[in-house]
Protein backbone atom coordinates (compact mmCIF):
# COMPACT_ATOMS: atom_id res chain seq x y z
CA UNK A 1 0.00 0.00 0.00
CA UNK A 2 1.03 3.59 -0.49
CA UNK A 3 -0.38 6.86 0.75
CA UNK A 4 0.61 10.46 0.06
CA UNK A 5 3.22 11.58 2.53
CA UNK A 6 4.58 8.15 3.36
CA UNK A 7 7.55 9.36 5.38
CA UNK A 8 8.17 7.37 8.54
CA UNK A 9 11.15 9.55 9.38
CA UNK A 10 8.91 12.61 9.61
CA UNK A 11 6.58 11.06 12.16
CA UNK A 12 6.57 11.65 15.89
CA UNK A 13 4.72 8.60 17.19
CA UNK A 14 4.07 10.27 20.53
CA UNK A 15 1.95 12.88 18.76
CA UNK A 16 -0.67 10.40 17.55
CA UNK A 17 -3.55 10.73 16.98
CA UNK A 18 -3.66 14.41 16.11
CA UNK A 19 -1.07 15.29 13.53
CA UNK A 20 -3.27 17.16 11.11
CA UNK A 21 -0.23 18.80 9.54
CA UNK A 22 0.61 15.50 7.83
CA UNK A 23 -1.50 13.60 5.34
CA UNK A 24 -1.60 9.99 4.28
CA UNK A 25 0.29 7.10 5.76
CA UNK A 26 1.77 7.38 9.25
CA UNK A 27 2.96 3.92 10.26
CA UNK A 28 2.07 0.22 10.35
CA UNK A 29 1.63 -1.44 13.73
CA UNK A 30 1.52 -5.05 14.89
CA UNK A 31 0.92 -5.97 18.52
CA UNK A 32 0.90 -9.28 20.44
CA UNK A 33 -2.71 -8.82 21.55
CA UNK A 34 -3.85 -8.65 17.92
CA UNK A 35 -2.10 -11.67 16.45
CA UNK A 36 -1.95 -11.67 12.64
CA UNK A 37 -3.53 -8.20 12.35
CA UNK A 38 -1.57 -5.23 11.02
CA UNK A 39 -2.94 -1.75 11.66
CA UNK A 40 -2.05 0.86 9.07
CA UNK A 41 -2.41 4.26 10.70
CA UNK A 42 -3.33 7.06 8.33
CA UNK A 43 -4.29 10.70 8.61
CA UNK A 44 -7.56 11.26 6.81
CA UNK A 45 -8.22 14.52 5.00
CA UNK A 46 -11.98 14.05 5.29
CA UNK A 47 -14.34 12.18 7.61
CA UNK A 48 -17.78 12.64 6.07
CA UNK A 49 -18.51 10.47 3.03
CA UNK A 50 -21.37 11.39 0.71
CA UNK A 51 -23.28 8.33 -0.49
CA UNK A 52 -23.65 8.43 -4.29
CA UNK A 53 -27.11 9.45 -5.45
CA UNK A 54 -27.23 6.29 -7.57
CA UNK A 55 -26.99 4.09 -4.47
CA UNK A 56 -29.96 2.11 -3.14
CA UNK A 57 -29.08 3.34 0.31
CA UNK A 58 -31.69 5.69 1.72
CA UNK A 59 -29.25 7.91 3.56
CA UNK A 60 -26.69 10.44 2.44
CA UNK A 61 -23.78 10.58 4.89
CA UNK A 62 -21.45 8.06 6.51
CA UNK A 63 -18.29 8.03 8.58
CA UNK A 64 -15.97 5.01 8.58
CA UNK A 65 -13.14 5.26 11.12
CA UNK A 66 -11.66 1.99 9.84
CA UNK A 67 -11.21 0.22 6.51
CA UNK A 68 -11.07 -3.53 6.70
CA UNK A 69 -12.56 -5.39 9.63
CA UNK A 70 -11.10 -7.90 12.07
CA UNK A 71 -14.53 -9.52 12.42
CA UNK A 72 -13.64 -11.34 9.22
CA UNK A 73 -17.22 -12.26 8.27
CA UNK A 74 -16.92 -14.44 5.19
CA UNK A 75 -20.11 -13.01 3.66
CA UNK A 76 -19.31 -9.32 4.28
CA UNK A 77 -20.45 -7.17 1.34
CA UNK A 78 -17.66 -4.64 2.02
CA UNK A 79 -14.80 -7.02 1.28
CA UNK A 80 -14.48 -5.77 -2.27
CA UNK A 81 -13.75 -2.23 -1.08
CA UNK A 82 -10.33 -3.40 0.14
CA UNK A 83 -9.33 -3.90 -3.48
CA UNK A 84 -9.43 -0.11 -3.91
CA UNK A 85 -6.35 -0.12 -1.64
CA UNK A 86 -4.73 -2.84 -3.77
CA UNK A 87 -5.29 -5.31 -0.96
CA UNK A 88 -7.23 -8.51 -1.46
CA UNK A 89 -10.82 -9.05 -0.40
CA UNK A 90 -9.98 -12.22 1.52
CA UNK A 91 -7.36 -12.46 4.24
CA UNK A 92 -6.21 -8.87 3.83
CA UNK A 93 -9.69 -7.55 4.58
CA UNK A 94 -9.55 -9.05 8.08
CA UNK A 95 -5.81 -8.77 8.72
CA UNK A 96 -4.83 -5.43 7.14
CA UNK A 97 -6.93 -2.78 8.88
CA UNK A 98 -6.61 0.89 8.00
CA UNK A 99 -7.07 3.19 11.00
CA UNK A 100 -7.91 6.86 10.45
CA UNK A 101 -6.25 8.02 13.65
CA UNK A 102 -7.33 11.65 13.33
CA UNK A 103 -10.94 10.93 12.39
CA UNK A 104 -12.45 12.56 15.50
CA UNK A 105 -10.62 15.84 14.93
CA UNK A 106 -11.54 15.88 11.24
CA UNK A 107 -15.17 15.08 12.06
CA UNK A 108 -15.32 17.97 14.52
CA UNK A 109 -13.89 20.33 11.95
CA UNK A 110 -16.28 19.26 9.19
CA UNK A 111 -19.50 19.29 11.21
CA UNK A 112 -18.62 22.69 12.67
CA UNK A 113 -18.77 24.36 9.27
CA UNK A 114 -21.64 26.73 8.63
CA UNK A 115 -22.36 24.88 5.40
CA UNK A 116 -22.95 21.55 7.14
CA UNK A 117 -26.68 20.67 6.98
CA UNK A 118 -26.73 18.47 10.10
CA UNK A 119 -28.18 15.51 8.26
CA UNK A 120 -28.10 12.14 9.96
CA UNK A 121 -24.69 10.44 9.81
CA UNK A 122 -24.44 6.65 9.76
CA UNK A 123 -21.62 4.64 11.33
CA UNK A 124 -21.14 0.96 10.56
CA UNK A 125 -22.18 1.14 6.94
CA UNK A 126 -18.97 -0.27 5.48
CA UNK A 127 -16.86 -1.79 8.23
CA UNK A 128 -17.69 -2.13 11.90
CA UNK A 129 -16.85 0.90 14.09
CA UNK A 130 -16.72 -1.35 17.16
CA UNK A 131 -14.43 -4.02 15.76
CA UNK A 132 -11.44 -5.06 17.89
CA UNK A 133 -9.33 -2.15 16.66
CA UNK A 134 -11.64 0.25 18.47
CA UNK A 135 -10.49 -1.21 21.78
CA UNK A 136 -6.97 -0.06 20.94
CA UNK A 137 -7.65 3.27 19.23
CA UNK A 138 -10.83 4.53 20.90
CA UNK A 139 -12.00 6.65 17.96
CA UNK A 140 -15.75 6.42 18.47
CA UNK A 141 -16.13 8.59 21.60
CA UNK A 142 -14.59 11.56 19.83
CA UNK A 143 -16.80 11.05 16.79
CA UNK A 144 -19.94 10.77 18.92
CA UNK A 145 -19.01 13.90 20.87
CA UNK A 146 -18.34 15.87 17.70
CA UNK A 147 -21.63 14.88 16.08
CA UNK A 148 -23.73 15.55 19.17
CA UNK A 149 -22.06 18.90 19.89
CA UNK A 150 -22.80 20.06 16.35
CA UNK A 151 -26.45 19.00 16.45
CA UNK A 152 -25.94 16.14 13.99
CA UNK A 153 -28.15 13.04 14.43
CA UNK A 154 -26.31 9.72 14.30
CA UNK A 155 -27.07 6.07 13.71
CA UNK A 156 -24.86 3.12 14.63
CA UNK A 157 -24.93 -0.45 13.32
CA UNK A 158 -22.47 -2.90 14.84
CA UNK A 159 -21.66 -6.48 15.75
CA UNK A 160 -19.34 -5.24 18.48
CA UNK A 161 -20.04 -5.53 22.19
CA UNK A 162 -17.63 -2.65 22.82
CA UNK A 163 -20.68 -0.49 22.15
CA UNK A 164 -21.48 -0.95 25.85
CA UNK A 165 -18.46 1.17 26.74
CA UNK A 166 -20.04 4.13 24.98
CA UNK A 167 -23.64 3.75 26.19
CA UNK A 168 -23.33 6.54 28.79
CA UNK A 169 -21.87 8.80 26.12
CA UNK A 170 -24.66 7.89 23.71
CA UNK A 171 -27.30 8.61 26.35
CA UNK A 172 -25.75 12.05 26.82
CA UNK A 173 -25.67 12.56 23.06
CA UNK A 174 -29.34 11.64 22.84
CA UNK A 175 -30.21 14.63 24.97
CA UNK A 176 -28.93 16.78 22.12
CA UNK A 177 -29.72 14.83 18.93
CA UNK A 178 -31.61 11.73 17.77
CA UNK A 179 -29.45 8.63 18.26
CA UNK A 180 -30.23 5.25 16.70
CA UNK A 181 -28.64 1.91 17.59
CA UNK A 182 -28.85 -1.44 15.82
CA UNK A 183 -27.09 -4.73 16.46
CA UNK A 184 -26.25 -7.15 13.65
CA UNK A 185 -26.72 -10.82 14.54
CA UNK A 186 -26.92 -13.13 11.54
CA UNK A 187 -25.91 -16.48 13.05
CA UNK A 188 -27.14 -18.00 16.30
CA UNK A 189 -25.58 -21.44 15.94
CA UNK A 190 -22.29 -21.19 17.83
CA UNK A 191 -20.34 -23.57 15.61
CA UNK A 192 -21.46 -21.89 12.39
CA UNK A 193 -20.87 -18.45 13.85
CA UNK A 194 -17.30 -19.31 14.79
CA UNK A 195 -16.68 -20.60 11.27
CA UNK A 196 -18.24 -17.83 9.21
CA UNK A 197 -17.77 -14.86 11.59
CA UNK A 198 -14.46 -15.83 13.20
CA UNK A 199 -13.62 -12.47 14.76
CA UNK A 200 -17.04 -11.53 16.12
CA UNK A 201 -18.44 -11.72 19.65
CA UNK A 202 -20.85 -14.58 20.24
CA UNK A 203 -24.54 -14.12 19.56
CA UNK A 204 -25.14 -14.36 23.30
CA UNK A 205 -22.72 -11.50 23.97
CA UNK A 206 -24.37 -9.36 21.31
CA UNK A 207 -27.82 -10.09 22.71
CA UNK A 208 -26.55 -9.01 26.13
CA UNK A 209 -25.40 -5.76 24.51
CA UNK A 210 -28.87 -5.28 23.01
CA UNK A 211 -30.34 -5.76 26.46
CA UNK A 212 -27.91 -3.25 27.96
CA UNK A 213 -28.80 -0.66 25.33
CA UNK A 214 -32.52 -1.23 25.91
CA UNK A 215 -32.01 -0.82 29.65
CA UNK A 216 -30.21 2.45 28.93
CA UNK A 217 -33.38 3.68 27.22
CA UNK A 218 -32.75 2.91 23.57
CA UNK A 219 -35.11 1.16 21.21
CA UNK A 220 -32.80 -1.26 19.46
CA UNK A 221 -33.35 -3.07 16.20
CA UNK A 222 -31.54 -6.28 15.29
CA UNK A 223 -30.33 -6.90 11.75
CA UNK A 224 -31.05 -10.59 11.15
CA UNK A 225 -29.09 -10.71 7.95
CA UNK A 226 -27.78 -12.12 5.83
CA UNK A 227 -30.09 -15.11 6.00
CA UNK A 228 -28.17 -17.85 4.20
CA UNK A 229 -29.86 -20.58 2.15
CA UNK A 230 -29.70 -24.02 3.79
CA UNK A 231 -27.62 -22.64 6.67
CA UNK A 232 -29.84 -20.23 8.61
CA UNK A 233 -33.20 -20.24 6.78
CA UNK A 234 -34.93 -23.23 8.39
CA UNK A 235 -38.10 -22.65 10.41
CA UNK A 236 -36.37 -23.82 13.57
CA UNK A 237 -33.37 -21.53 13.02
CA UNK A 238 -35.50 -18.47 12.30
CA UNK A 239 -37.91 -19.12 15.17
CA UNK A 240 -35.08 -19.62 17.66
CA UNK A 241 -33.30 -16.46 16.48
CA UNK A 242 -36.44 -14.34 16.74
CA UNK A 243 -37.26 -15.71 20.19
CA UNK A 244 -33.81 -14.73 21.45
CA UNK A 245 -34.03 -11.30 19.83
CA UNK A 246 -37.39 -10.66 21.47
CA UNK A 247 -36.14 -11.87 24.84
CA UNK A 248 -33.25 -9.39 24.64
CA UNK A 249 -35.74 -6.53 24.39
CA UNK A 250 -35.28 -5.55 20.75
CA UNK A 251 -38.21 -3.73 19.19
CA UNK A 252 -37.83 -4.82 15.59
CA UNK A 253 -35.93 -6.90 13.07
CA UNK A 254 -34.50 -6.08 9.67
CA UNK A 255 -34.06 -9.21 7.59
CA UNK A 256 -32.70 -10.02 4.18
CA UNK A 257 -31.22 -12.83 2.12
CA UNK A 258 -27.52 -13.31 1.46
CA UNK A 259 -26.07 -10.94 -1.14
CA UNK A 260 -22.81 -11.96 -2.85
CA UNK A 261 -21.06 -9.18 -4.69
CA UNK A 262 -18.32 -10.11 -7.15
CA UNK A 263 -15.56 -9.18 -4.69
CA UNK A 264 -17.15 -11.32 -1.98
CA UNK A 265 -18.40 -14.33 -3.90
CA UNK A 266 -15.03 -16.05 -4.56
CA UNK A 267 -14.09 -16.01 -0.88
CA UNK A 268 -17.53 -17.13 0.23
CA UNK A 269 -17.48 -19.99 -2.26
CA UNK A 270 -14.03 -21.06 -1.07
CA UNK A 271 -15.38 -21.19 2.48
CA UNK A 272 -18.49 -23.10 1.35
CA UNK A 273 -16.41 -25.64 -0.57
CA UNK A 274 -14.29 -26.22 2.53
CA UNK A 275 -17.00 -26.27 5.19
CA UNK A 276 -20.18 -27.34 3.36
CA UNK A 277 -19.25 -28.92 0.02
CA UNK A 278 -22.68 -30.51 -0.27
CA UNK A 279 -24.21 -27.03 -0.68
CA UNK A 280 -21.95 -25.75 -3.45
CA UNK A 281 -24.14 -26.87 -6.36
CA UNK A 282 -27.21 -25.26 -4.82
CA UNK A 283 -25.39 -21.96 -4.27
CA UNK A 284 -24.07 -22.00 -7.82
CA UNK A 285 -27.67 -22.27 -8.92
CA UNK A 286 -28.90 -19.52 -6.62
CA UNK A 287 -26.04 -17.14 -7.44
CA UNK A 288 -24.92 -17.96 -11.00
CA UNK A 289 -22.16 -16.07 -12.75
CA UNK A 290 -21.96 -12.43 -11.68
CA UNK A 291 -25.35 -12.53 -9.96
CA UNK A 292 -25.15 -10.91 -6.53
CA UNK A 293 -28.71 -10.98 -5.20
CA UNK A 294 -30.65 -14.08 -4.29
CA UNK A 295 -33.38 -14.84 -6.85
CA UNK A 296 -36.68 -13.06 -6.36
CA UNK A 297 -38.42 -16.42 -6.00
CA UNK A 298 -36.16 -17.32 -3.08
CA UNK A 299 -36.66 -13.95 -1.41
CA UNK A 300 -40.42 -14.31 -1.75
CA UNK A 301 -40.26 -17.82 -0.31
CA UNK A 302 -38.17 -16.57 2.59
CA UNK A 303 -40.61 -13.72 3.21
CA UNK A 304 -43.56 -16.09 3.42
CA UNK A 305 -41.59 -18.09 5.95
CA UNK A 306 -40.26 -15.34 8.22
CA UNK A 307 -43.00 -12.69 8.30
CA UNK A 308 -45.49 -14.79 10.30
CA UNK A 309 -42.74 -15.70 12.75
CA UNK A 310 -41.80 -12.06 13.26
CA UNK A 311 -45.43 -11.19 13.93
CA UNK A 312 -45.79 -14.13 16.31
CA UNK A 313 -42.88 -12.85 18.37
CA UNK A 314 -44.32 -9.34 18.53
CA UNK A 315 -41.52 -7.67 16.62
CA UNK A 316 -41.72 -5.01 13.94
CA UNK A 317 -40.51 -6.26 10.58
CA UNK A 318 -38.33 -4.46 8.06
CA UNK A 319 -36.92 -6.24 5.05
CA UNK A 320 -34.03 -5.63 2.73
CA UNK A 321 -36.34 -5.26 -0.25
CA UNK A 322 -38.16 -2.37 1.47
CA UNK A 323 -35.39 -0.01 0.48
CA UNK A 324 -36.52 0.19 -3.14
CA UNK A 325 -35.88 3.29 -5.21
CA UNK A 326 -33.98 6.14 -3.64
CA UNK A 327 -35.98 9.39 -3.61
CA UNK A 328 -34.49 12.66 -4.78
CA UNK A 329 -32.35 14.36 -2.17
CA UNK A 330 -34.11 17.10 -0.26
CA UNK A 331 -30.93 18.96 0.57
CA UNK A 332 -32.23 20.25 3.87
CA UNK A 333 -31.98 19.05 7.44
CA UNK A 334 -35.34 20.71 8.06
CA UNK A 335 -37.10 17.95 6.15
CA UNK A 336 -35.67 15.29 8.44
CA UNK A 337 -36.61 17.33 11.49
CA UNK A 338 -40.17 17.76 10.21
CA UNK A 339 -40.57 14.03 9.74
CA UNK A 340 -39.22 13.39 13.22
CA UNK A 341 -41.60 15.93 14.72
CA UNK A 342 -44.50 14.00 13.20
CA UNK A 343 -43.28 10.84 14.89
CA UNK A 344 -42.36 9.21 11.59
CA UNK A 345 -39.71 6.57 11.11
CA UNK A 346 -36.94 8.01 8.91
CA UNK A 347 -37.24 6.55 5.42
CA UNK A 348 -33.83 4.94 5.60
CA UNK A 349 -35.04 2.64 8.35
CA UNK A 350 -38.70 2.01 7.68
CA UNK A 351 -41.27 1.25 5.06
CA UNK A 352 -42.00 3.65 2.24
CA UNK A 353 -44.81 5.34 4.13
CA UNK A 354 -42.49 6.26 7.00
CA UNK A 355 -44.05 3.86 9.48
CA UNK A 356 -41.99 1.52 11.57
CA UNK A 357 -40.74 0.95 15.06
CA UNK A 358 -42.25 3.84 16.97
CA UNK A 359 -43.13 3.85 20.62
CA UNK A 360 -45.01 5.96 23.09
CA UNK A 361 -41.77 7.33 24.45
CA UNK A 362 -40.13 7.43 27.85
CA UNK A 363 -37.64 9.35 29.96
CA UNK A 364 -37.26 11.98 27.32
CA UNK A 365 -35.53 15.29 27.10
CA UNK A 366 -36.49 18.06 24.73
CA UNK A 367 -39.74 18.38 22.84
CA UNK A 368 -39.77 14.75 21.76
CA UNK A 369 -39.18 13.26 25.20
CA UNK A 370 -41.33 12.17 28.07
CA UNK A 371 -43.54 10.10 25.81
CA UNK A 372 -44.65 13.09 23.76
CA UNK A 373 -44.81 12.01 20.14
CA UNK A 374 -44.76 8.58 18.62
CA UNK A 375 -41.00 8.47 18.27
CA UNK A 376 -40.13 9.96 21.63
CA UNK A 377 -37.89 7.37 23.29
CA UNK A 378 -35.44 9.09 25.64
CA UNK A 379 -35.83 11.68 22.97
CA UNK A 380 -33.90 14.73 21.99
CA UNK A 381 -34.87 17.64 19.81
CA UNK A 382 -38.26 17.76 18.16
CA UNK A 383 -38.35 14.11 17.14
CA UNK A 384 -36.72 12.34 20.05
CA UNK A 385 -36.20 9.13 18.10
CA UNK A 386 -33.27 7.80 20.07
CA UNK A 387 -32.81 4.24 19.02
CA UNK A 388 -36.12 4.23 17.16
CA UNK A 389 -34.48 2.92 14.06
CA UNK A 390 -31.45 1.02 12.99
CA UNK A 391 -28.35 2.22 11.27
CA UNK A 392 -28.80 1.42 7.64
CA UNK A 393 -25.99 -0.97 6.71
CA UNK A 394 -27.16 -3.79 4.51
CA UNK A 395 -25.94 -6.17 1.94
CA UNK A 396 -25.88 -4.33 -1.31
CA UNK A 397 -24.37 -1.20 0.26
CA UNK A 398 -23.52 1.52 -2.21
CA UNK A 399 -19.92 2.65 -2.40
CA UNK A 400 -19.43 5.79 -0.37
CA UNK A 401 -16.75 8.08 -1.64
CA UNK A 402 -13.62 8.40 0.46
CA UNK A 403 -11.26 11.31 0.36
CA UNK A 404 -8.66 10.02 2.79
CA UNK A 405 -5.78 10.50 0.37
CA UNK A 406 -4.89 6.81 0.21
CA UNK A 407 -3.30 5.64 -3.05
CA UNK A 408 -3.14 1.87 -3.66
CA UNK A 409 -0.22 0.19 -5.38
CA UNK A 410 -0.37 -3.53 -4.56
CA UNK A 411 -2.80 -6.37 -5.01
CA UNK A 412 -2.40 -9.80 -3.47
CA UNK A 413 -4.39 -12.98 -3.17
CA UNK A 414 -5.72 -15.59 -5.54
CA UNK A 415 -9.39 -15.48 -6.45
CA UNK A 416 -11.54 -18.36 -7.58
CA UNK A 417 -13.19 -18.04 -10.99
CA UNK A 418 -16.65 -16.53 -10.87
CA UNK A 419 -18.95 -19.49 -10.28
CA UNK A 420 -21.13 -20.84 -13.06
CA UNK A 421 -23.83 -23.31 -12.27
CA UNK A 422 -27.18 -24.92 -12.95
CA UNK A 423 -30.59 -23.36 -12.58
CA UNK A 424 -31.80 -22.13 -9.22
CA UNK A 425 -32.13 -24.71 -6.47
CA UNK A 426 -33.47 -24.00 -3.00
UniProtKB/TrEMBL annotation:
Residues 390-426 are annotated as: Disordered. It holds the Pfam family Radical_SAM. Keywords: Iron, Iron-sulfur, Metal-binding. One of its GO terms (molecular function) is metal ion binding. Residues 53-305 form the Radical SAM core domain. It comes from the Bacteria. This is Radical SAM protein. It comes from Microbacterium mitrae.
Amino acid sequence: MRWNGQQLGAVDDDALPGMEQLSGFVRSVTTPEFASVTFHEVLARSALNRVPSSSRMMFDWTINPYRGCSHGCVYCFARGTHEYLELNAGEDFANQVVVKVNIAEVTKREVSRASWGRERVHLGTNTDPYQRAEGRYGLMPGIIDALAASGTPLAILTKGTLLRRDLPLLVDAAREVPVSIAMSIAVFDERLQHSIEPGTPTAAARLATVRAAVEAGFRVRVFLMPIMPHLTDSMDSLDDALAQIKAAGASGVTWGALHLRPGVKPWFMQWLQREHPDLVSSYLGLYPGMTAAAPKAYRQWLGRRIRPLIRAHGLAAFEDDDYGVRPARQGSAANAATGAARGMMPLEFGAADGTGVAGSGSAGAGAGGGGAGAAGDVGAGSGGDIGAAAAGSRTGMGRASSRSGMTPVRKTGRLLPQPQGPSMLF
